[in-house]
Amino acid sequence: MMSVICRSFRAVFLYCLKFKRSCPTTEPYTFSKSNPDDRMVPEIVDKGCNIMTDGLICAYLFDGQGGGQEVDWNTIVSWKPEDGILWIHLNYTQENTKQWLETNSNLDAITVAAMIAEETRPRCIISQDSLLVFLRSVNLNPGEAPEEMVSIRVWVDQSRIISVRHRPLYSIRDIRDSIERKRGPKTVSSFLIRLTNYINDHIGNAINDIEEELDKLEEDGLDSSMKHRQQLAEIRRNSIIMRRYVAPLREVHYKLQIEGKTWFSEGECIQLRESCDRIIRYIEDLDLVRERVIVNQEELSSRVSEQINNKMLLLSIVAAIFLPLSFVTGLLGMNLGGIPGATSTHSFMLVSISLTVIGVSAIIFFRFKKWF
After folding, report:
1. Which of 42, 173, 192, 300 has a beta carbon 3.0–4.6 Å from 168's, enabling a disulfide?
2. Which of 284, 296, 288, 297 shows the shortest CA–CA distance to 247?
3. Is-contact 185 265, C-beta < 8 A?
4. Any alpha helices (H) in the chain, and if so which ranges?
C-alpha cells in the first residue's frame, strides 16, 4: 500500500515539474551590453501583450522626469490627459490596430488612412492642436539591407503620442532603452526631437559604412575585374536608394523648424536646425559617393577599352605581318603548271629565305612606327 502511494506522489511531482518548465516566463526582456545578441533585437520584448494578435508593441506613461511606466491596453483605455503623457506604439499591419485607430483613437478618418497606408514618403502635417510626422530610418534588422529604409508614422497632440510601424526600428529601441534608464523624453516635443536625432544617427552610421566600403575599394586598387565592377554598381545603387528617402527628411525638419515653433522650445528649435543641417550634409555625402563611384566606373571602363584596343592592335599587327607571307605561299601553292622553280632543288630554301626577310622587314617597319 505504501509503495503505491509513493509512486502516486512521485508521478504527481514529476508532472508538476514538467508543467512548470513548459510555462513561458513572464519577466520582461532587458538589454545587456555584454551580450552581443541583444544588439540584434530591434525592440524590447513586450510585457503583457502579444504583438501578433493585438498589434500593441509597447505603451508608456511618461512621468515627466525622463522615465515612464510601461502600460497595457487596460491602462490605455482608461487613460485621461491628466494622467500624464501617453505613448502608444503599434504595428499597423494588425487588424486590431486598424480597428482601434478607426474607432477608439479619436483621430479623424484622413489621419487614420494616412497612418496605415502601405506606401508613404517622409512629410509633416501641422495643425493647430496636433502634428502628423512621417519619417524613415535605415533598416538595421538582421538579414535586411540598410538602404531599404523603414517607415514610422507619428501623431501627437499635447498629451498623447501614437506611433505606428510595420518593421522594427532601432530608433524606437533606443527611446525605450532611454526610458528604462530614466533618461528618456519628458514632453511630446522632446520625444520628437529624440526620435529624429536617433534616426539621424543611424542614417549617418549607414552612410559612413558606404563611404568606408568605397574608400577600401579605392585603397586596395581597382581593376577591371567583374567583382570590383559589381561592388561599385552595388554602392552606387545603395546610395541612390538611400538618397531617395533621405532627401525628403530635409523638408520635414525644415517645416518642423519653421511652422512648428509653437510646439517646440527655443532650444528644441535649435536642435531641429542642427538636425536639418545634418540631413543636408548626409545628402551631400551621398551625392559625393555617387560621383566618386561614377568616376571610378568611368576609369574602369577606360581601362577595359584600352585593354581591348591593345589586343586588337596586336592582332592587327600579326595579321599585317602574315598577310604578304600568306599571299606568297598561296600563290606558289597553286597546283598549276608553269610555277617557277617547281623542278629546282633550291626553290624551297630560296622561298623560305624570302618569306623570312619579308616578315622581319614588316616587324622592323611596325617597330619603327611605334605601333607596338
Report:
1. 42
2. 284
3. no
4. 2-22, 51-54, 73-78, 95-103, 109-115, 170-180, 188-220, 226-259, 266-332, 347-368
Summarize pLDDT for 294-351 with one digit per residue, the tens: 888 888 888 888 888 888 888 888 888 888 888 888 877 777 667 777 777 777 888 8
Q: What are the residues whose beta carbons fall under 8 Å from the beta carbon of 46, sequence distance 6 or more?
A: 28, 56, 57, 58
For the whole prediction, is pTM greater than 0.90? no
CB 70 within 8 A of CB 87: no
Which of 216, 215, 206 is closest to 238 using CA atoms? 206
Cα 275 from Cα 281, distance rounded (Å): 10
57's grid cell: 508593441
- Work out whether strand 131-137 and strand 150-156 pair parallel, antiparallel, or are unpaired: antiparallel
For residue 156, give the nearest of 238, 250, 62 by alpha carbon. Answer: 62
Q: Under a CB-based contact definition with an 8 Å cutoff, are residues 116 and 98 in contact?
A: yes
By C-alpha distance, which of 185, 201, 221 is closest to 300?
221
Is CATH 3.30.460.20 the classification given to domain 36-302? yes
Q: b or e along 214-253 (b: 16 or more beta carbons within 10 Å of the residue's beta carbon)?
A: beebeeeebeeeeebbebbeebbebbebbbebbbbbbebb
**Residue 293: closest CA among 234, 208, 224:** 234
Q: Are 294 and 272 in contact (CB under 8 A)?
A: no
C-alpha cell belonging to residue 278: 545634418
Q: Are the CB atoms for 200 and 279 separated by under 8 Å?
A: yes
For residue 362, the Cα-to-chain-centroid distance in whole angstroms is: 59
Model confidence over 67-105: pLDDT tens digits?
Answer: 999 999 999 999 998 999 999 999 998 888 889 999 988
Radius of gyration for the alpha carbons in the chain, expressed in angstroms and rounded: 37
Q: How far apart are CA 265 and CA 92, in angstroms?
A: 31
Q: In what order do the strands lie in the sheet with 150-156?
A: 68-70, 56-62, 86-91, 160-165, 150-156, 131-137, 123-126
Q: Rounded CA gap, 217 and 267, in Å? A: 42
